Amino acid sequence: MYLHVRDIGPGVDPWVMKSRALEHAGYLPGDILIVDLNAKPQDGDAVCAQIYDRNGKTETAFRIYEYPFLIAASADPDLRRPVLVDNERASIRGVVMASIRPASRSDLPPIRLTLAVAVWSLAAAGASHRSKLKTAACG
Fold first, then answer.
1. Domain span at residue 44?
2. Of 61, 60, 57, 56, which Cα lies nearest the Cα of 71?
3. Count of structural domains, the chain
4. d(CA 8, CA 12)
5. Nearest of 75, 95, 93 to residue 85 by alpha carbon
6. pLDDT for 16-74, tens place per residue?
7. Does the pTM of the predicted model rise above 0.70?
8. What pLDDT is stored for residue 8 in this prediction?
9. DSSP letter at 92?
């Protein structure tokens, strides 16, 4: 599947949700999340975050922001540990502004999905912006 993001301005990226970390917030594995990298998060926002382990390895994760923590909205007990946002061990990259749930039918051939965003929160003046579809393979 391909995703072309046009006319939404710089600083907006699509990601594919790979975990169940936000299933109780309505975001499921396979959903395409549109993340505004310039938005400032508020309590209750779904966010894209970077979490660093002791060895410096980075994990991209989607969580709910509840100042000053990131929390999962999941029944999975392994994901429910709160993470302190201290900009050393965890930092917020952006705020989820919208999501797309592609139809999943195994009997259909792979599709090419073109996204012409006309949503007021994503429409931005300026040049066309193309972004590769990113995936968050973590929790």
1. 2-136
2. 61
3. 1
4. 7
5. 93
6. 999 999 999 999 999 999 999 999 999 999 999 999 998 989 999 999 999 999 999 99
7. yes
8. 62
9. E
d(CA 49, CA 2): 24
**Distance, CA of 60 to CA of 48 (rounded, Å):** 7
Q: Residues 106-126: what's their mean pLDDT?
A: 41
Summarised one tens digit per residue, pLDDT across range 30-43 is 999 999 999 999 99
Q: Please identify which residue in the block is written with the tokens 């929160």.
A: 121
**In the structure, what pLDDT confidence band is assigned to residue 80 with cuts at 50, 70 and 90?**
confident
Per-residue three-class SS string for the chain: CEEEEECCCCCEEEEEECCCCCHHHCCCCCCEEEEECCCCCCCCCEEEEEEECCCCCEEEEEEEEECCEEECCCCCCCCCCCEECCCCCEEEEEEEEEEECCCCCCCCCCCEEEEECCCCCCCCCCCCCCCCCEEECCC
Q: For strand 134-136 and strand 12-17, is the pairing parallel, antiparallel, or unpaired? A: parallel
| CATH classification of the domain holding 125 | 2.10.109.10
Q: Provide the token pair at 63.
A: 């969580």
CB 128, CB 12: distance < 8 Å: no
